[in-house]
What does this fold into?
Amino acid sequence: MKRQRHIRTHVLATLIGLTCGVLLVVILAFNLSVRGYIRSRVAAQLDAISRNAAEMWHVGMRDKRGMGMEPFLNRPDGQTGMRGSAVLLDEEGRLLSVLNEQDEVSQELADSLAGKPIEEMDNQIVTLPSGTYAVSALRDPNQADKVLLVYVDMTAITAFSRQVNIILLLVILAAIVLSVLLSRRFAHELTSPVQSLSDFAREIGSGALETRELSFPDVEFDTLAESMNHMVTELRDAKHKQETFFQNVSHELRTPLTSIRGNAEGIVCGLMEPKQAGRVILSESDKLGDLVEELLYLSRMGRTRPASEAQTLDLRDVLSLCVSEQRAEAEARGIRFSFDFDEAPVMLRIREQDAQRLFGNLLSNALRYASSEIRLCCRREGEGVFASVADDGPGVSEEDMPHVFERFYKGAGGRHGIGLAIAQSVAEANQGQLRVHNDGGAVFEARFPAGSVS
It folds into this structure.
């Protein structure tokens, strides 16, 4: 099982790790830079002192006055302020002479380096009670028994570097404390909205479809709360429509079932003529079959179907077939059909069953409201396809217009509230659009883009 942790712990660990990592990198970079800078300045200062001391040594030997005759110019480094000097040692490391007045430092250096070979005295850092010094040794080829030891006082700059490191460590500790405080506050600001939204989602899951007045300072959480409230509204509307649909379907089922049962009982009891009652039973059974088929088709619309099922059809043939299927009912009601078809084929790539369901439902709806005529149009429109079914009935009321294609919505004179919903689903599944407007009656227009046209 995957280990879980609280957001607060995750935020705290992230902030502390990031802060410490950044500051440690800064400390490391600072120390490397300072160390390199100090070494370069010390090397330059030692070199300058060595040249000056060697020159004084040689001059003193020529003048036969010795090393102590001329004062050594103890100039500090121009950038770091480090001062240096030189002393003369014998081959055993004993102090012979100094070049300035710092006798105590010279004696300390001589004592600490006594007995060491000259190789161990060259370019070394020596720490004494009086401070830290960089030393370098020179042997005169004319006097092999004497060693010139030059040194630079690094005490001040070393102390400065140490103090900066202490300050940086204190900064790290302060940053850790600040990270803890900030992470607690940030985690609270993060987890509080999440907890509120989780409680809201739990209520929705339990069936409490009531919106909440939630407001958060973060835009993302506020947007999520608005989306959840919108979802609640949609679920509530869907639930209401579903309840309405089941009421309508129950009524639609009850009516033919009652008729079937009544006629069947009449036959059994000998009260009705069997042929007449049988015709009624067949008619009502057909209505039940149509309703069940509509429900099954609607349930299948949400499933993904392979594109290989689509065929290239001439929409003129599809509309003509749908008209022939409903012509008998139209003639019984005195309704005629008029056609406005292109002479050239109007080809569309679509499943045949989908096309028949789309235009069959539109024709069935037009038959329900038409007074005397149904007009059908089918033509190419630019690179796409246009088809329409219009009737000369009362048209769609303003109240029903926004809900015509909603599932389970049953307008005045409607049957189940799913026929037009199926028609729109078919159009959208084939990258098309289905629209309705009034023009001497209801006009339903279907348009398909160039990509679905063959």
Notes: The chain has nine helices and twelve strands.
